[in-house]
Amino acid sequence: MMTIIFYSVIFALIATLSHKFLTGDGDFTLLLKGKVKRESFQDKVVWITGASRGIGEVLAKQLATLGAKIIISARNEAELERVKKHISALGKHGPEGVEILPLDLSSGEDAIGDAVEKAVSLFGGAGVDYMIHNAAFERPKSTALDVPEASLKATLDVNVMGPISLTRLLLPHMLKRGRGHFVVMSSAAGKAPAPGQAVYSASKFALNGYFHSLRSELYQKGIMVTVVCPGPIETSNAPDTSTSGQRGVREKRVSSERCAELTLVAASHGLKEAWISFQPVLAVMYLVQYMPSVGFWLMDKIGAKRVETAAQKGNTYSMNLLFGRKKE
């Protein structure tokens, strides 16, 4: 009898975990953490790039409700003013708890250095506790040969050089205080091949490599790094600025609100990496991570079809691409 009970419990546990995986919107470790630890952000200074819209704007809203002091950055100062006005009433610190710091990540180290000095002097010189690298540049899906040099340079400047330069210049201030946390909004395209997004994918692979290496170097010095890899996310971004693909296609996407919430769950629990997506993107990421031959075969199988489907505004994440069925 005890044996039957034991195996029944094991079966129920496996069934529950399998259901959670198949219906979940994040990796196992992330989902098991549950809710955001509010105390991690209460009265902390959080600097967000790409905060004028999309996930960055939603992160600012959620952090305000958690009692954080927020620095919002982007190129468009008028949009930052709109965001500040919208979130000022949400937090315990009111309008004084939100500072605007216009920043173009492609402007070079001198301009970025000036922004860093301003950021650490805000809120009475409190410094920066969390740096959320959210700004990103992405063009609509196309073949690697169709990416012009200007787009290649813009993508690498904003997605790679900008965050690295900002990190290098902010890091000494964090080390002096003995604490700091970088939260890096990467992408599923930085974990698995992304046909039709070769340059964007390359930029995210580079971002992952840099920040995981940085974390290993500085972990004993009080500096934490959380790399977040979302799949397709529902945002209001235009196609050339979206962090997760084109709008208007029939793809099942995680909402910006849920993505931001899971990002803050990951950061508040100190996770090193977190994946956010519905299936089948998570399944592909797991395959590439743990069964690379199968994962890469899958990407090779759908590669050309994915670019064609994107051009037709179809579902570029559909399993129909693998089986050769009619595009949605």
Notes on the structure:
The strands form 2 sheets. This protein has a 7-stranded parallel β-sheet, sandwiched between helices. Strands 7-8 form a two-stranded parallel sheet. The chain is globular. About 4% of the residues have low confidence. Helices cover 50% and strands 11% of the residues. By secondary structure, the chain is an alpha/beta fold.
Please tell me the overall pLDDT: 86
* Through-space gap between termini: 51 Å
Order of helices and strands: HHEHEHEHEHEHEEEHEHHH
What percent of residues are in strands? Answer: 5-15%
Structural class: alpha/beta
Oligomeric category: single chain
**Sheet with the most strands?**
7 strands, parallel
From the spread of the alpha carbons, the general shape counts as globular
Please count the helical segments. Answer: 11
Strand order of the largest sheet: 3-2-1-4-5-6-9
Runs with pLDDT <50, length 5+? 238-249
Number of strands: 9
Helical content (DSSP H or I, runs of 4+): 40-55%
Radius of gyration (Å): 20 Å
